[in-house]
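queue> holo job accepted (DQA)
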Amino acid sequence: MKIVVIQGPNLNMLGIREQNVYGQMKLEDIHGQMKSFSDQNKMEIEFFQSNLEGEIVDRIQECMGDADGIIINPAAYTHTSIAIRDAISAVQIPTLEVHLSNIYQREEFRHTSLTAPVCAGQITGMGPFGYHLAMVGMTQILNEVKMMKEQQSKQAKAQA
Ligand code: DQA
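queue> job finished
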């Protein structure tokens, strides 16, 4: 099973930017913890960060036929990007949205996520631990998908 983690604009500055909001942990440390989780659970994982909307759209499209699940923090594009929403919707891959801060406690323009409606779920306000929760959540989703596919193939064989 393969998970692709996509990080939006300014998340490369974690540990430096607004520590009171986003904490002190660097992106590479968050990714290190996610990698340990995926190793322990025998999953493949890939990380991608970009400050550019089109690059994020491209990376989501590349997941088609390659990744089983996507974990994404679209950062500021959460609130503005129809293109990223459409890409998530197009690839039909279970996707979880993560935000370090609680976007619903912040400025009003952050209260709307254009991307969350096309995601399986959203984790917001749990800091870096939110990414761990997303890994656990994605493991559950992928296990359910696997079980469903096994059942479907059993039924198809029984009907043949
Ligand atoms: C963020 C929240 C967004 O509103 C903001 O633009 C970010 C980070 C978060 O992880 O809390 O860059 O996605």
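queue> The chain has a mean pLDDT of 96.
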